[in-house]
């Protein structure tokens, strides 16, 4: 009887370890998503700046933030640097997308290996709507005036 209890305990510990590993993998994937989104916003800002200063006279004064200090330059000096930064951000996003795809495959393999099934929110919503189909949810009724 004691052997049976210790076997169940190991199984629970093993399941908990698998769940922890899975949660960590999902967390890493979410971090990749958020970093990609953040960098895409920066690219958008760079595009706005490029679009605003490109048609202007290259000898015109321009200010650029360098390490927290506002520095006076010319558009001719700033435009190529902003374009290089944008290209660098695009390369980083491409690498992060590759890492994201690898992580997705790794998670899918992990799910298959450990027979993990995730109940999606849309499935839950459908089940809830089927259960509460006849209810008067979302309707506010005042007191009866008799």
Automatic annotation (TrEMBL):
Keywords: Chaperone, Coiled coil. GO terms for molecular function: unfolded protein binding. One of its GO terms (biological process) is response to cold. Residues 121-131 have a biased composition (Basic and acidic residues). Pfam families: Prefoldin_2. PANTHER family: PREFOLDIN SUBUNIT 2 (PTHR13303). Belongs to the prefoldin subunit beta family. This is Probable prefoldin subunit 2. It comes from Elaeis guineensis var. tenera (Oil palm). The lineage of its organism: Eukaryota, Viridiplantae, Streptophyta, Embryophyta, Tracheophyta.
